[in-house]
Amino acid sequence: MAMREIRVVPDPVLRTPCDTITTITPAVRRLVDDLLETVNDPGRAGLSANQIGVSLRAFSYNIEGRIGYVLNPVMECTSGEQYGEEGCLSVPGLWYKTRRADYARVRGIDVDGHEVVLEGHGLMGRMLQHECDHLDGHVYLDRLEKEERREALRYMRSHAR
Predict the structure, then answer these.
(1) Binding-site residue positions for Fe cation
(2) What is the tens place of the pLDDT at every residue in 25-84?
(3) What are the residue boundaries of the structural domains of the chain, listed by start?
(4) Which residues make up each annotated binding site?
(5) Topology of the domain comprising 12-159
(6) Mind telling me the catalytic residues?
(7) Which residues is 100 bridged to in the sheet?
(8) What catalytic activity is recorded (predicted)?
(9) Do the Cβ atoms of 142 and 64 come closer than 8 Å?
(10) DSSP letters along 80-100, please?
(11) β-pairing verdict for 66-79 and 103-109
């Protein structure tokens, strides 16, 4: 297991849809270990594989002391609405109110091929949507209102490394 470096916008891996995992290889098992170790840090709610530079459909989560992962997640349903602060490890230092569904359910598999269903309201629902967006090549800034998105992009340009 290894704590992996987080890729930040504008890294192109964050804008590339991730590939489906077709075979559980030793490399996929190592990826899961790295995702779990990297998300297990205070203040981290979720982490997608492309955020650590791997374009495969996998993410880990750390919500209210519950840590886990899912491979090949598919968003099955969402309902309700929430509008609250959201941030992203790949967009450091920026938090904006973001509109999301309140409830979300994702279905995927684990490294043994067993079905995994993750669902929840509030923070869990937000994290499921946020991580699935990453795997589809989107960052939360894409969901901001036009003026807030402009402000965020200006800030990022002025604070580029």
Answers:
(1) 88, 130, 134
(2) 999 999 999 999 999 988 899 999 999 999 999 999 999 989 999 999 999 999 999 999
(3) 12-159
(4) 88, 130, 134
(5) Peptide Deformylase (3.90.45)
(6) 131
(7) 82
(8) N-terminal N-formyl-L-methionyl-[peptide] + H2O = N-terminal L-methionyl-[peptide] + formate
(9) no
(10) S-EEEEEEETTEEEEEEEEEE
(11) antiparallel
